[in-house]
Structures are given as structure tokens and as C-alpha cells.
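If you are new to this repository, start here. Below is one unmodified record pulled from the training split, so you can see the exact layout before writing a loader.
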Amino acid sequence: MSRRSEQLSEALHDYVVAHSTQPDEILRDLAKETASRFADEADMQIGPEQGTFMTLLARLIGAKDAVEVGTFTGYSAICVARGLAAGGRLLCCDVSEEWTSVARAYWQRAGLADKIELRLAPAAQTLRELPPATSFDFAFIDADKVGYVEYWDLIVPLIRPGGVILVDNTLSSGRVIDHGEQGDAVQGIRRFNGRALADDRVELVLLPIGDGLTMARKL
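And here is the target side for that same chain:
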């Protein structure tokens, strides 16, 4: 369907997915269309086990207001929006009209179009322009890796105490521990991991889900 949790063998990953709540037809169709239309970027989409985890987590903390930085074709947005309490809203930040046009169609199909607001602009700009009283219960960061520290620093003050921030790709396909890897993306992840760990506003854990998923709770 989409990228598996890379730390698991293919067989063990299949077992994990098979013994978790399954993606419905809408998510399965979205994953297939993404793989077909955007083959070179399809691994940017989260895997089914991560999507299920995000829905459950949003429900568990009673999230009502959420923000997502990096939307792609909308799979993660559906998962988050489905976990929000009644009357909940999800703000999605992205810069691609092409990718998010697919997202919009599937949000409509999922009956979530009225729960999701998409802003097509650089995410840092969108976050800076939010009203001062803005508060979120839940955030998901999954965009350009060199921007992670900036997104983090903009989002943490907006999260209410007890709220949760999820940050994707924080293992960078294992490259975070390979000192021979010095590309911009992996260095961006290393900077972020260090910044988040040193941030006394949160407590966090780096989970081996997908390509590494950092979960932080605002203190």
C-alpha cells in the first residue's frame, strides 16, 4: 500500500498491519492513486499502521483543533481529522496545488471537507500569520526536513498543555546514525532531533514507526 515501518522485515510488517485496524476503502484507494500518479514521491505518504495510530492518538487525547505541516495527497489529514472530536477542525499547510487537489477530492469523498482547511503557502508564513490566541491540541509535521526546527519553534507555543506533536521521518531511513551521510535532509533531521530533545517545554519519545515518528507532549 505504502511505505512500511522500515525497522521491520517485510513479513513482520505485514503481520503488524494485518493485526491492526485496517484502512477503509477510501484510504486504500487514495494510497493506490498516489502510487499510480506520483510514483517518484509516493513514499512521502505515511503507512497504514501510522495512520491508524494517529487517529487513535487524536481520539485518546480528545483533540479538537489540529494543524498539519505537509499534506501531500491527504492521507494523514484524513487520519487526523477522523480522530478529532465533534466540531473539530484541521488546518493543513502545503505549497502544492497538484498534490493537494487529490487530497481535496478524497476529503470530500470521506465527508471531511468541512472539517479541513487547506492553506497553500509556505507553512512558516501561515503559522506566523495565525491570530495570537490560536491554540491547537494536536500537530503533525511532515514536510521539508531542513525546515523542521523552524516549524517546531513556531508550533510548540501554539500547543495547549497536554497537547501532542508528531514529527515524521526522524530516523531518516537510518541515516541519522551514519556519519558519512551529510545531505541537507538528514542534517535537518539531526538538528531537529537535537533541538526537540533539549526542549524543556515537552516530554517526548522517538518511535520506530514508519521512518521514525517522534511523539512529544506539551508540559
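Two things worth knowing about this chain: The domain at 10-218 is CATH 3.40.50.150 (Rossmann fold). DSSP finds eight helices and seven strands in the chain.
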